[in-house]
UniProtKB/TrEMBL annotation:
InterPro entries: PdxA (IPR037510), PdxA_fam (IPR005255). Homodimer. It comes from Fuscovulum blasticum DSM 2131. A divalent metal cation binds at H160, H205, H260. It comes from the Bacteria. It is an enzyme of class 1 (oxidoreductase). The keyword Signal does not apply. Catalyzes the NAD(P)-dependent oxidation of 4-(phosphooxy)-L-threonine (HTP) into 2-amino-3-oxo-4-(phosphooxy)butyric acid which spontaneously decarboxylates to form 3-amino-2-oxopropyl phosphate (AHAP). The lineage of its organism: Bacteria, Pseudomonadati, Pseudomonadota, Alphaproteobacteria, Rhodobacterales. Binds 1 divalent metal cation per subunit. Can use ions such as Zn(2+), Mg(2+) or Co(2+). This is 4-hydroxythreonine-4-phosphate dehydrogenase. Its cofactor is Zn(2+); Mg(2+); Co(2+).
Length: 324
């Protein structure tokens, strides 16, 4: 088996990322090899860590210590107080981690949370977020965000836009692209030979035959029918209010949703602490915990590592499915 581990980026060193890395190592031990890429000065005081010169060397670090691939930042870090001087270091770590997975030195990428405004203020970061920067580094035109937990996978077709903009943004081309990227990723990254997809309607009751809006009948239903005719196991448009109870979830492998909250409310209700953010459509595996930097609790030792642990495990599983 390859010694290449998952590489975990430091994220914003003033957030909860560094302390969660330590907690994840304590839980996972040597059952899941990962290497933390960041500045050791940013780890919680008293952390047992071991610096390595290559990701592969992480496998030789005793379970009681965190394997660290050092990356020097400009300044120390104070919990809850982002320092503009460290913004460039955060960005450099992401780019270096991508190089590691591209080269095969790391088998998958897991990213700790960043704070977009802090990066913009400190380093002129020009991307809306992590995902767009990763797509840029990978040379990929479009990627898709999936949120996953053991009981549900959801994909929002439109993401961080006003609800009033969704009907215009939700075009047939965008929805088809989202469906095809998701379908391919379920095969390649999740090992599903024949993925089953459920497509949520845009309107209440999936439009109810046009009584509550025509987008479902005029755009979504014909698209789903066309893809089904190609052999894809796909259903829709389905009323979103009846798609997410346990019996309904058993009938599909991923739900394609029209907009952000339609996808994220059910998964955060089902598994608030354990959800994982997955980027589909990249040439490498990338996962991330489904939470932010949490400046308000950083350094207090109360941050829950469940989502990061789930993200590391899923990264490992996806990399295995890809055969890396």
């Amino acid at each position: 088996m390859s010694r290449a581990p998952v590489v975990l980026t430091s994220g914003d060193p003033s957030g909860i990322g560094p302390e969660l890395a330590v907690k994840a190592r304590a839980v996972l031990g040597d059952s899941l090899p990962f290497v933390w890429l960041g500045d050791p000065r940013h780890l919680p005081a008293g952390t047992a860590f071991h610096e390595v010169t290559s990701p592969a060397a992480a496998a030789d670090v005793p379970p009681g210590a965190l394997p660290v691939l050092p990356h020097r930042f400009a300044a120390p870090a104070l919990p809850g107080q982002p320092d503009p001087a460290n913004a460039s270091g955060v960005i450099e770590v992401i780019a270096r981690a991508v190089d590691l997975v591209h080269s095969g030195a790391a088998r998958a990428l897991c990213t700790a949370p960043i704070h977009k405004k802090a990066l913009k203020d400190g380093a002129g970061f020009a991307f809306p977020g992590h995902t767009e920067y990763l797509a840029h580094l990978a040379g990929v035109g479009r990627v898709v965000m999936m949120l996953a937990c053991p009981g549900l996978r959801v994909v929002p077709t439109t993401i961080h836009i006003a609800l009033s903009e969704v009907p215009t943004a939700l075009t047939e081309a965008l929805l088809e692209d989202t469906i095809r990227i998701t379908h391919a990723a379920l095969k390649a990254d999740f090992g599903l030979a024949a993925p089953r997809l459920a497509v949520a309607g845009l309107n209440p009751h999936a439009g109810e035959g046009g009584a509550m809006g025509w987008e479902d009948e005029r755009m979504i239903r014909p698209l789903v029918a066309r893809l089904a005719a190609e052999g894809m196991a796909i259903r829709g448009p389905l009323p979103a209010d009846t798609m997410f109870h346990a019996a309904a979830r058993a009938g599909y492998d991923a739900a394609i949703c029209a907009y952000h909250d339609q996808a994220l409310i059910p998964i955060k209700t089902i598994d608030f602490a354990g959800g994982v953010n997955v980027t589909l459509g990249l040439p490498f595996v990338r996962t991330s915990p489904d939470h932010g930097t949490a400046y308000d609790i950083a350094g207090k030792g109360v941050a829950d590592p469940s989502s990061l642990i789930a993200a590391l495990r899923l990264a490992q599983d996806m990399a295995t499915a890809r055969g890396r």
